[in-house]
Automatic annotation (TrEMBL):
Entry annotated with the keyword Zinc: yes
Record-linked Pfam families: ADH_N, ADH_zinc_N
Subunit and interaction comment: Homodimer.
Domain of life: Eukaryota
Keywords: Metal-binding, NADP, Oxidoreductase, Phosphoprotein, Zinc
Name used for this protein in its record: alcohol dehydrogenase (NADP(+))
EC number(s) per entry: 1.1.1.2
Species whose genome carries this gene: Armillaria gallica (Bulbous honey fungus)
GO biological process: alcohol metabolic process
Catalytic reaction annotation: a primary alcohol + NADP(+) = an aldehyde + NADPH + H(+)
């Protein structure tokens, strides 16, 4: 195989977050359990916007974002057992963990205290992790996922973060037949939450601030559509939903207290979007009438990723994507920020 070129589109200033410059970079030191992947596609995730704008704090600059990656294996370490040269594989939002702690040993490696994010992160030895808006990536085998033959690369890429981020809390909280699931927001995360909840067999109610995306939500599988800005929209919904997945990347305007009241006894509202602003104020009494819970979820495990990809093939879950050349990344991240994308941008490598 030809020697890889390690180049990527990087942001150097969070105040100029649409200005990407191609840079050379050095990947992490190669270990024998590592896999080198030549990148073909990379999705644009909301996390990328939070990072390059400084919304979650100052990143390590220059930063090459991207953690929804699909490409071909071009090198494997001597300890790699699952993959061979030429395999089509994917990478999500995590590329390393300690593999020693209780979480790593129990399919909760996505909660390892020593985990390394796919970009804007450092390995224990100080090596810097660079992301998928690039030519290639080096990843520990555990965080490489085989892509099913019947799932195209551009369809699979955004599932590896956005899809997995909603799939994990759905399966961990029992979404399935005879369950009623609410989804707040119809966007990059929400359009997967609707489809995967339906694919798992649940009845799906979508909450949105307007009717603008109602037709899309119904096409994705929503059984009911509730406009939260309408007066008394939630008044007759007390104790009707078993689980709510909140995918809205905003804080203002979410009727959080009223949403909690729609949950059945010990029902749960899971936050998967991470807006820059704080959530609306809550009183302790908001949890009393039904014993409900407010919680979070962090990406998903490899076991869940494989299950998700196979279910997508089996049930026909589709990524609603707009594919553009990676060289157009500046314009693409702007369109994502302005909420002009239905519902995920995917970049095709062109370096």
């Amino acid at each position: 195989m030809p020697e890889l070129q390690w180049k990527g589109y990087a942001v150097h200033d969070t105040s100029k977050w649409t200005e990407f410059k191609v840079i050379d970079f050095t990947p992490k030191t190669f270990d024998e359990e590592d896999v080198d992947i030549k990148i073909d596609y990379c999705g644009i995730c909301g996390s990328d916007l939070h990072t390059i704008t400084g919304g979650w704090g100052q990143p390590m600059l220059p930063v090459i974002p991207g953690h929804e990656i699909v490409g071909k294996v071009v090198r494997v370490g001597s300890k790699v057992k699952e993959f061979k040269l030429g395999d089509r594989v994917g990478v999500g939002a995590q590329i390393w963990s300690c593999n020693k702690c209780a979480n790593c040993k129990n399919d909760n490696e996505n909660y390892c205290r020593h985990m390394v994010d796919t970009y804007n992160a450092k390995y224990p030895n100080g090596d810097i992790a660079y992301g998928g808006y690039s030519t290639a990536i080096r990843v520990s085998e555990r965080y490489v996922f085989a892509i099913p033959e019947k799932l195209s690369s551009e369809q699979a890429a955004p599932m590896l973060c956005a899809g997995l981020t909603v799939f994990s809390p759905l399966v961990r909280n029992g979404a399935g037949p005879d369950k009623k699931v609410g989804v707040v927001g119809v966007g990059g995360l929400g359009h997967y939450a609707i489809q995967f909840a339906k694919a798992l067999g649940a009845e799906v109610t979508v909450f949105s601030s307007s009717t603008g995306k109602k037709a899309d939500a119904i096409e994705m599988g929503a059984d009911k559509f509730v406009v939260t800005r309408e007066p008394d929209a939630l008044e007759n919904m007390e104790m009707t939903l078993d689980l709510i997945i909140c995918t809205a990347d905003v804080s203002h305007g979410i009727p959080l207290t009223k949403l909690l009241q729609t949950l059945t006894v010990h029902g749960k509202l899971v936050m998967v979007a991470l807006p820059d602003e704080t959530l609306p104020d809550l009183r302790g009494a908001s949890f009393i009438s039904n014993g409900c819970s407010l919680s979070g979820s962090h990406i998903g495990s490899k076991k869940e990723a494989i299950q998700m990809l196979n279910l997508a093939v089996e049930k026909g879950v589709k990524s609603w994507v707009d594919v553009r050349p990676m060289s157009e990344v500046g314009e693409c991240v702007k369109r994502v920020k302005e909420n002009k994308v239905k519902y995920r941008h995917v970049l095709k490598a062109d370096l």
